[in-house]
Design brief:
Elements: H1 2-9, E1 15-19, E2 31-32, E3 41-42, H2 43-56, E4 60-64, E5 67-72, E6 78-82, E7 87-90, E8 93-95, E9 99-101, E10 117-118, H3 121-124, E11 132-136, H4 140-149, E12 155-159, H5 169-177, E13 181-184, E14 187-195, E15 199-207, E16 213-217, E17 220-223, E18 227-229, E19 259-261, H6 273-298, H7 303-316
Parallel strand pairs: 1-4, 8-19, 10-17, 11-12, 11-17, 12-13
Antiparallel strand pairs: 2-3, 5-6, 6-7, 9-18, 14-15, 15-16
Helix pairs in contact: 1-2, 1-6, 4-5, 6-7
């Protein structure tokens, strides 16, 4: 929506293809307190404000069941095809498809998402001051985020289905030396329990070795068992990091000229509302420069000119490094 705001302000006709109501992960978050200017705001309210702002500058929103593919054609244009079968033709595309946290798939997980269940400690840790929380996972993210959560929570249970972590030794050291963290080995979470009005109250645990089952009092559950970037919509090869996130240049352009990437889909240090908006601002401004150069050379009318436009516009927008 930030990208749409800036392309709209640049007087570019902008189509926003959205699966369902605009907002993405904002709709899975009850409150946010880390967006500048909004000390505390409901996720869906922030999404509504973003969408209204983008529409103010002419962005057209199209609700779809999803985007099937983004394909670059021989003449340099992209065909973005929705699962409904609609085709959008454009010289440039900004892909902000984000990623999907891998879920446990247990009862209560979806019911208490944003009301105790979270997939982002940086986003939600501050809501659990002086409370008891649990973390599920055994990799770098789980250990790092468990350590981070102790800045707020009085107690952090780190639950892992095996008897050793996959995390780096230094992160394991931080966990084992932190008096607020208690590791629960060989155990899985079977169910999230709570109250529809008050939110999550605790977890049902199952020890895979002893077969013991017990209830764990906890106000929050942070799940870090993986995160998948939604890159499946992009046709053709693109440069990516070892985790599959798209590598971009400083103008947010991917290795495919004219295809820009912003937000959680991009290879970067952190994934927050503010960083996504920053990425999108840069991507939109770079896309405007790319399209201007593309159109300028394309006016010659030849296929060769179009290919030249792609290369020239690519350089003009910042260049891929």
């Amino acid at each position: 929506m930030t990208a749409a705001l800036y392309t709209g302000r640049a007087m570019l006709r902008t189509a926003v293809l959205e699966r369902g109501f605009p907002g993405g992960e904002l709709l899975n978050t009850e409150y946010l307190d880390d967006v500048i200017g909004f000390p505390k705001i409901l996720g869906y309210e922030l999404a509504e404000k973003f969408a209204a702002h983008a529409k103010q500058f002419g962005a057209e929103f199209f609700e779809t069941t999803g985007v099937a593919s983004v394909t670059k054609t021989e003449n340099g244009y992209f065909h973005t095809i929705t699962e409904n079968g609609d085709i959008f033709r454009s010289p440039a595309v900004v892909v902000t498809a984000g990623g999907t946290p891998i879920k446990l798939g247990i009862p209560g997980e979806l019911e208490y998402a944003g009301r105790g269940v979270s997939y982002c400690a940086i986003c939600d840790a501050a809501f659990f001051k002086e409370q008891i929380v649990a973390v599920v996972g055994g990799g770098d993210a789980a250990c790092e985020e468990a350590d981070f959560l102790t800045r707020y929570a009085t107690k952090v249970y780190l639950i892992h289905r095996r008897n050793e972590f996959r995390a780096s030794k230094i992160l394991q050291k931080h966990v084992f030396e932190n008096p607020k963290i208690e590791v629960i080995w060989d155990t899985v979470v079977e169910k999230v329990e709570g109250d529809p009005k008050e939110g999550m109250k605790g977890l049902r645990l199952h020890n895979l070795v002893t077969q013991e089952r017990k209830f764990l009092d906890a106000n929050g559950l942070f799940i870090f068992i993986g995160f998948r970037p939604n890159t499946g919509v992009i046709d053709g090869h693109f440069d990516h990091d070892v985790m599959g996130y798209v590598v971009t240049d400083n103008a947010m352009m991917s290795s495919i000229p004219g295809l820009f990437v912003a937000g959680d889909l991009r290879s970067q240090l952190t994934r927050q509302v503010t960083t996504a908006a920053g990425d999108a601002t840069t991507a939109a401004i770079a896309a405007d420069k790319y399209i201007s150069r593309f159109k300028e050379i394309e006016r010659d009318g030849s296929g060769e000119a179009t290919r030249e436009a792609v290369e020239s516009a690519h350089i003009n927008a910042g260049g891929y490094t």
